[in-house]
Amino acid sequence: MATREETVTEELNAVTAGGVGLRHIADLTAKEVEGITSVQPAEEGWLVNVEIVEDRRIPSSGDILAIYQAQIDEEGRLLSYRRLRRYKRANADSGEAL
Fold this sequence. Notes:
This is Gas vesicle protein. By secondary structure, the protein is an alpha+beta fold.
């Protein structure tokens, strides 16, 4: 699946960087996005962590979630992305990964 090349004309701040990072991760994974979990400035742009539903289960406490990280530059271009963690929704705060 090809991702759209997204650039922004104004200087990125935490809010706009988060939105850009979320869209890149959503495009790359083609999965349902739960939300942004963190945005932090990096040496050459921003690091954006996004929570994704990787596998929907019934009941929802069995859903498999994952945290992905996007590194974007100052213009909003995706430099890299990776999955940081995968876990069941019921274990989200326990630190227990799959």
